[in-house]
Amino acid sequence: MKSTLSGDPVDIEVRGLRRVYGTGEKAFEAVRGIDLAVEAGTIVALLGTNGAGKTSALEVVEGLARPTAGQVRVLGLDPVTDRAKVRRRTGVLLQTSGFPADLTVAETLRMWATTMTSTRPVADVLAELDLGGRSDVRVRSLSGGELRRLDLACTLLGDPEVVLLDEPTTGLDPQSRRRVWDLIAALRDRGRSVLLTTHYLEEAEELADRVAIMHAGRIVREGTPAQLGADQASTIRFQGAPALVGLNDLPAAIKVATQSGTTTVHTHDLQTTLHALLGQAAQCDVRLSNLEARNASLESVFLAIASGDSDPDGSLSSMEGATR
Looking at the chain, which terminus has fewer C-beta neighbours within 10 angstroms, N or C? Predict the structure, then answer.
């Protein structure tokens, strides 16, 4: 069991983290007292609207910046004051890299290996990232996706216990993204801990054991993807129903809105509301064009937070108060 602030067996623990840029009247608080834990052998995804503070928080966990307030422990150690000990046991993937353009892919990895106490065979890592056939290609000739995979190869070269990934699949094509997802999932299977930021909601749903959503410097929602979606509304969308009346009285419906000819029904119980809607349409001999029914998802949670339709505690009270 690793030593942490709370005594729990976690590899990353953040308590009351604040990060402020500037001083005086120009000070900006990017991170406003967040708590976060990553247990051993789990993947936690940190999502956020633009400017939410997720990268600012991750930089403190990586040891690249000191917190303004609060405490951070990685493998029971302070990532800044104990940087030498933490660094050899962690792998960090930043948003951008600065590889020498004249080195080949293999030379870049061999150079990176000289900064580590122990590494995996370079050929194995290249094969794992589908870069074996590009080992003799110079960095300047790589595509954006290949550069990102080289970034990840350097991150995983030392077989780290804790992996910190800042938007790991940005710029990758769908096939390469899936390959990276498999690699990240394999890290968890080997008992490694992963904290990642991403703009791809399907990436978080696919990979994460837990998701934390940041907004305006705070973590406003946290839980498994299923838990986060459980208290959000499912939606039914359709076009062409001018003859239907009483949509606001559909069972379990909590909000009905029509815009540009498309009607959206938000509901607590998708099956019950959809059954009633279809029954009403059949009774009125109305055809519902482009009918689409969706269970609540991580996307709906994220969009509700971004639009202000979700309270910080995750309740639907703001939506409940909408026109019914």
Answer: N
Model pTM score: 0.80
Pairing type for strands 218-223 and 10-21 reads unpaired
Q: How far is CA 206 from CA 151, 219, 234, in A?
A: 22, 21, 20
Amino acid at 282: A
Dump pLDDT digits (tens) for 118-149.
899 999 999 999 999 999 999 999 998 899 99
Count of residues making up the chain: 324
The secondary element (H helix, E strand) that includes residue 181 is helix 174-189
CA atoms within a 13 Å half-sphere pointing along the CA-CB vector of 36? 33
* Sheet (strand 289-294) strand order: 253-259, 262-267, 234-239, 289-294
Q: Give CA torsion, residues 242, 244, 245, 247, to 10 deg.
A: -110
Contact indicator for 72, 183 with CB cutoff of 8 Å: no
Token duo for residue 191 = 């008992």
